[in-house]
Amino acid sequence: MRQHQGVPDAVRLLSVRKVHGKQRGVVALNGVTVGFGRGTFTAVMGPSGSGKSTLLHCAAGLDRPTSGSVLLGEQDLGGLSEIRLTTLRRDRIGFVFQAFNLLPALTVWQNVTLPLRLAGRKADRDTVTQVIDRVGLGDRHRHRPGELSGGQQQRVAIARALVTQPEVVFADEPTGALDTRAAREVLGLLREAKELAGQTIVMVTHDPVAAAYADRVLFLADGEVVGELLEPTADEVARRMTHLGAWADERPQDGPRLTGSVR
Ligand SMILES: Nc1ncnc2c1ncn2[C@@H]1O[C@H](COP(=O)(O)OP(=O)(O)OP(=O)(O)O)[C@@H](O)[C@H]1O
């Protein structure tokens, strides 16, 4: 576990076990202990079904572990009611999903400010403008998601995740639906959130090139953390994934999208 100079990790999982279903339960996480330091960017990788999404959902308080605990800073999520958990997620966590999850009837500005409105907070015009400018959509405030490309829509989703200035941003396959160029822009924005604002980023991905934008890659297999890589390169990540058998059953064209050096 990484804990620097008495500063607690942004998120910590302690012996987290998650069994899905009651009768013939599927063990999705089998005693995971891991910390995500403040201001770090971690990619979570592993074969299909290894527990990546379950880990993300438990860490983000979207799902409750069967046993073990999850801490956001010093707050143990275990004892919180659903209402307090919802408030905590809204105030301290940002989410980015593969499918963008924007509201089609709302403009860019309205989508980005939605978390503030839901929290009953006033949207400070300058802050919102800054966040939308930062993702490169300063001239698209009034546009609706349907008028934007996939990459632009994901950039709106990132602005929406950042507008509340959350401590942690969880991203579930944020580049899964994007082409290489749009993916690089999105990954650059996530890395910038870490570098400029000291936010903690935890991203699930299948793509070694995307993982190479992180400071650290965690490898999961069968619900357990089986390794990590610091300062990863796409080649090294792909090599480890191959050893985990991640692509063993897939055709060559489904393999890692190695698109050259990204660092
Ligand atoms: N709601 C659920 N009910 C029953 N089993 C589930 C549920 N959610 C996940 N699982 C099972 O838990 C295991 C881990 O699933 P999880 O979605 O966390 O894996 P993953 O690594 O994210 O997979 P993928 O890369 O395919 O998205 C799998 O065996 C999956 O079938």
Give a structural overview.
With 263 residues, the chain is α/β, with parallel strands linked by helices. It has one domain (11-248): 3-Layer(aba) Sandwich (Rossmann fold), CATH 3.40.50.300. 32% of the residues lie in helices and 24% in strands. It contains 8 helices and 10 strands. The chain has helices spanning 52-59, 82-92, 108-118, 125-134, 150-162, 180-197, 208-211, 234-243; strands at 11-20, 26-36, 41-45, 67-72, 75-76, 93-97, 168-172, 200-204, 216-221, 224-230. It has a 6-stranded mixed β-sheet, with helices on both faces. It has a 4-stranded antiparallel β-sheet with strand order 2-1-4-5, with helices on one face. Helix 3 (108-118) runs parallel beside helix 5, helix 4 (125-134) runs antiparallel to helix 5 and helix 5 (150-162) runs parallel beside helix 6 (180-197). It is globular, with a radius of gyration of 18 Å. The two termini are 26 Å apart. Residues 251-263 have low confidence and may be disordered. Adenosine-5'-triphosphate is lined by residues 20-21, 26, 28, 46, 48-54. Residues 20-21, 26, 28, 46, 48-54 line the site of adenosine-5'-triphosphate.
